């Protein structure tokens, strides 16, 4: 299935027209990030138990995260953006250095979306590149 990508506006964050990480990767995270353990956490009803210590976002149609809104490759948003799990908050975009950004490129390739390369500098002030101290829960 080939997705027609919306033409990006210069200076616009490419994540707003992508969503590949929310389609091809499982977002697993520590169970206590959910709202049945902490006020304002990830909505527990949107998660499934992975093991004694981890949960993952439920997947809906075609393996998409149930919180993903819109059409991947065209226009997308997260329905729980302010309450999304740490693994989503820490996911590195393609312009991040090293293997972290490579996960984004892999997810885009699975949806047959073109790669996004902007070097090591983040030209998008809306989405700062964060350095991660721990391994990603994206699988």
What would you note in describing this structure?
By secondary structure, this protein is α+β, with helices and mostly antiparallel strands. The protein has a domain at 14-110. It is 15% helix and 13% strand. It is built from 3 helices and 5 strands. The protein has helices at residues 21-24, 86-89, 98-110; strands at residues 28-30, 47-49, 54-57, 68-71, 75-78. The strands form 2 sheets. A 3-stranded antiparallel sheet has the order 1-3-2, with no helix packed on it. A two-stranded antiparallel sheet has the order 4-5. The radius of gyration is 15 Å and the shape is globular.
Overview in brief:
The chain is of the alpha+beta class.
Structural class: alpha+beta
- What oligomeric state do the depicted chains represent? single chain
Distance between the termini: 22 Å
Mean pLDDT: 81
Topology:
Elements: H1 21-24, E1 28-30, E2 47-49, E3 54-57, E4 68-71, E5 75-78, H2 86-89, H3 98-110
Q: Which features characterize this protein?
A:
about 15% helix, two-stranded antiparallel ribbon, 3 helices, three-stranded antiparallel sheet, alpha+beta, globular
